[in-house]
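Render this sequence as a predicted structure.
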Amino acid sequence: MNISHDINTLRQLKNGNLPFEKLHAMMSGFKDTDRFDKMIALWQESVEWDDPILLPLGEHLYVVRKPDGRRVVKSTWGHEYCEAHENWKLHAKVFVRDTHELINEIYPDKLGCNTEWMHLREYYDPISGVLLEVEAVPPGYPIVHDFKPDIDTFYTEWLGRPAP
């Protein structure tokens, strides 16, 4: 069964305003075949730059195609981090919560982690200052590379068309 959701419903989904009943029905049902393209159009209309979005990486991160064909990670606010196959976190603003005092800023006393065992790394967009991701890792642990997208395979094998 192919259900196609209208653009206003998908806009509510993107903005986190979709009523729970509709969200549950959408999550429980079959995915409409054109949803990826509709969501890309919604993300594209929500940014002020013209580089075509190829794939979302997170709430405010996208892989975009530059005029010269390169694929780069770009934020909602226009900061270009790096090539899509690289770890964008290496180019973000980072704040490390590695002391009891810094952990207590977000967790009540004695409910936070032991900083000898774990640090919290917060990754921020350098233009907007918006928090993009948090890692909870042992001290000295390498920066995690969460996702290395295979855009060509996604487009050809999942969407059935050549990658832009």
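Summary. The two ends are 29 Å apart (CA to CA). The chain has a mean pLDDT of 92.
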